[in-house]
Design goal:
A seven-stranded antiparallel β-sheet has the order 1-7-6-5-4-3-2. Helix 1 crosses helix 3. The longest helix has 24 residues. It has a domain of 104 residues: START domain (Alpha-D-Glucose-1,6-Bisphosphate, Chain A, domain 4, 2-Layer Sandwich). By secondary structure, it is of the alpha+beta class.
């Protein structure tokens, strides 16, 4: 098994605490409202396992994440994708660390580390990461636009 890591930073005029609440704390409720391809997000067991179900006809049926850390004080979350169509037969899991830090005039910088844990001797291609990064940024931009249009939400 190999591990390939990528880092990424994105800035936004949205305050870090609001973005953290939207993308991490209340994502189970907010994401299905904003993204029509997401049917629902189910918490399993003690809530540390989250299953995101997609609508029928979507190229992805579901994704399952294990939540390792949700640090409300430092605005950090750590989680891993442990099941789902995205992993296919080449990936064991994908681990994520997201940190939301104050930046500029009330905005924030979102720093992410993504680690792909591959099966066997498979080597991840940059294009594969870029496609996942693109989808993650689409979600980020949708949530950002919602928060900018609704300044009292998660304030």
């Amino acid at each position: 098994m190999g591990v390939t890591s990528y880092t990424h930073e994105t800035t936004t005029p949205v305050a870090p605490s609001r973005l953290f609440k939207a993308l991490v704390v209340d994502s189970d409720n907010l994401i299905p409202k904003l993204m029509p391809q997401v049917k629902n997000i189910e918490a399993e067991g003690d809530g540390s396992i989250k299953k995101m179900n997609f609508v029928e006809g979507s190229p992805i049926k579901y994704l399952k994440h294990k939540i390792h850390v949700v640090d409300d004080k430092n605005l950090v979350t750590k989680y891993s994708m442990i099941e789902g169509d995205v992993l296919g037969d080449k990936l064991e899991s994908i681990s994520y660390v997201l940190k939301f830090e104050a930046h500029g005039n009330g905005g924030c910088v979102c720093k992410s580390i993504t680690e792909y844990h591959t099966k066997g001797d498979y080597v991840l291609k940059d294009e594969e990461h870029n496609e996942g990064q693109k989808q993650g940024m689409e979600l980020f931009k949708i949530v950002e636009a919602y928060l900018l249009a609704n300044p009292s939400v998660y304030a």
